[in-house]
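Bench notes, afternoon.
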Amino acid sequence: MTGTVPPLAIAPSRRSGRDRGPGGSLVTTSSAREVARAWESFAAGEDVETGVRPEILASWYRCRDRYDVDRTLDVAPGARSEAAERIDNGVIFTALGGLGALAGKEVERDGAVVTVTDGDGRVLGSWGDPTAQRRAELHNLAPWSSWSEQCTGTNGMGTSLEMSGPVTVTGPEHWCEAFHQWACAGISIRDVVTGSPVASINISRWNASLSELVPAWLTTAVACVEQEIYRRAVYEADKVIFEFNRKSAQFSGPFMAIDRGGNVVAANEAAVSLLGLTGETPIAAGAIEPAQRWMPEISGLSGVVRWAKDRAQAATDWSGYACLPMGPGEDATSLTMRPVVDANHVVGMLCAFGVQEGEPYESPSEAAAGPLPRRVIGMRNDRLVLLAPSEIRYAEADRNIVWLSTERGRIQAATRGLENVERLLTPYGFSRVHRRFLVNLRRVAELERGIKGELFLIMDSRSHEFVPVSRRHAPELRRMLGV
């Protein structure tokens, strides 16, 4: 573990009356009673918009409407034994374990417990006050239990895996009533390549609040661990680019290299042209830095990449191909993928266009569609905003954060990732027009050409709100709009 972690103080050593309500309970404070009333209404099936912090309310919606978590659950289930450990995460878990053990010593006098989980919410270790640990074990807050939001509802560990940054869950903010006497704060550690959670660290305290300093401490502590993840991402990109340079002379057609997340890290001139990029793009020379990598606008590519990684992990000399359209309305082009392997782990793929070699990709049959979401959930300031799809003009991605342009202003989507938002909104007439933009076709007011022939959509004629259209999406967009 690199970096310096500041001392941890989660609460005064001697608990004061301010930590508890008049009845000696977290649930008897006035703010907790308001949250408890909202929880009762929400759990009964009503919709709630105020009185609960937006990140907590978004979690309640997931627990009730997506995961169907039993709110009467009082013991966390055991983790599935087949839960897969992500690539090369032993170093990360070792660093977090050392951090958890150090923090556990610091919080013993405050009656708190420190836990570390993997990216699936499986508890890997627990440290802290022995009495608090025994009480936590009554709820199976112990190693090899599952505290993902999907299994155990709103809690510091599971909810932190669903969002970026630190999250606190206090008293009746927990989805399961049996946990309403706990206060906890957690934060996830995320893979800089894929954006997926790798692990989390959490501090829990029975029947007493946590210091406001805890989230800042968690943020600093995690930044120290994430330095190792960043270092690994750079190391892996260097390996992938080396293999790309070594093999590129064998291909006269479009040839590119991608990282584990499907982001392009290197491409030859033919691939740069096929992907609609300029010659100045960093991937022409090799993008070592994660921020310089580029996600191709190829429909279905993300699913093919996941398939290829899974197949190649079992046999590192594997190769396979898929046929994918390079743009809306275009004929499919074959794409052969071969893994780049380091220490028996797949760290990227070499991709040759117009080639069919190895195992063919078969698109999995779509699962039976469930009920469409009743609304799109957004967050603004201290409120959770419930939006009808018709209110949204377009969605814009800022890496994994998605911003919704609406009649009520610019609102952050509670769902991370533009692909996930696209799946929610496509049934309502939304279409991808750019790698960063998804538009409501019913809300397009005007089309405008730029001085170099670029195409822009004007979504609000009053404010001249522009959305760029990428070259590959322009023909299909014109067809859909009938122009």
